[in-house]
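Supplementary Methods, section 5.1.

A reviewer requested that the exact input to the structure prediction be made available. We therefore reproduce it here, unchanged from the version used in the analyses.
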Amino acid sequence: MIDLAFRAMKFAMDKHKDQRRKYTNNPYTDHLAEVAGIVSAVLLHEVAIACAWLHDVVEDLGVTEKELRSEFGAAVARGVMALSDLEEGNRAERKRLSRERLSQAESWVQTIKVADLISNTSSIVEHDPKFAVTYLEEKRLLLDVLTEADPRLLAIAREQVGDKP
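The structure derived from this sequence is encoded token-by-token as follows.
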């Protein structure tokens, strides 16, 4: 059963092998492992864990929905596509469209998005405080529409972005 998540981990590690984190220069796969770990702490759901590993392969590396479907099946492909920020327009428009997309996502997809936010927030706040002002406001708005995500993770994320519970 856990084979799907393991295959997704290996695929993501291979695809992201040359990618580094923006502020820390750590391997990008550290972020993926953190998101997958956060997700697995609240969801014992192999498709969700697989999607947590794969959540950036479309928008960062151009992996296609067809490739995901072929490698991992329809549920994983659907989940990763729901997590992929592919909207166009200026930043405000892209973020608005992303919120609309994610507001309609299944609870486990929303939970992965919250885990991603948790993983990213502390690094951005620490290393880029000027951008963090914009980032934190965008994430407050996003959290407002992720109503189906795991409430424990939502509480952590809200605390990170300085939102009142």
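The longest helix spans residues 107-127. These observations are discussed further in the main text.
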